[in-house]
Amino acid sequence: MMNKGLFGGVNPMQMLQRLQANPMQFLRQAGYNVPDNLNDPNAIIQHLMNSGQVSQQRYEQARQIAAQFRR
Q: Whole-angstrom Cα distance, residue 22 to residue 19?
């Protein structure tokens, strides 16, 4: 079996474009449960962490990856 790597064989730039185009749809398709009434990115992150869907470590990893795209 082939290792698909960190992004599961999906182009990271395509993932970023999908996330930017429709964040709620992207998160839900990824299996996260986010209430409809949340639309502030910080509130969404806080909900995911408070509900145990995302750990502090995973959040920090995502921040590091996102920082690389901003360079």
A: 6
pLDDT per residue as tens, the chain (71 positions): 444 455 566 777 788 788 888 888 989 988 999 999 998 989 999 999 999 999 999 999 988 887 887 76
pTM: 0.72
Task: Let me know how long the chain is.
Answer: 71
Nearest to residue 7, comparing CAs of 62, 71, 68, 67? 62
- CA geometry: angle 16, 41, 67, nearest 5 deg: 45
Query: How many C-beta neighbours within 10 Å does residue 48 have?
Result: 19
